[in-house]
# Entry
Amino acid sequence: MIDLAEDAPSNPLLRLGAQPIALTAAALLLLIAGVTSIAIWRAYTGAAPETDRVVMSRQIQARTAQASEQLVEKTKGIEATQQESIDQLQVVQDQLQTVRRLLASQQADTKRLSEQVSGLTEAIDGLRQSFASAQTTDPTPAPATRNRAVRTRVLVIRTSLKRQKSRS
# Structure
């Protein structure tokens, strides 16, 4: 037993194991020294990660707000352009309707005039036929008969024109 007691003081690790308070105090001092050195380093460099994160988040918020404002402005511009296009389209549609009405009116006038021309053509043909038949029956008509034939023609033309006007 004496041999064991004599070997214990020669081994320094066994000595430390016998004093756990001293070992804990040394570990605690090392830990405090490390934390203190990190705090001093951050204080002198001025680059604390929390501060950097706050600054970065504020920059991101500012950029996001700016992008949102730009989007709102662009959207308003697009809305204005779209409204102008709609207004121009409405004007063009109104003009198209006016042109269609005018075209329909002109077509009706053309049809009415065409009917009048055909009526006049029929009246002229009738007059030519009556004049030709009058010439074949009487080669030299008397002046009074000639005037009556002219009056008859004028009367036929007037009645045909009145008929054409009453149709339209």
Residues 49-137 form the longest helix (89 residues). The mean pLDDT is 82.
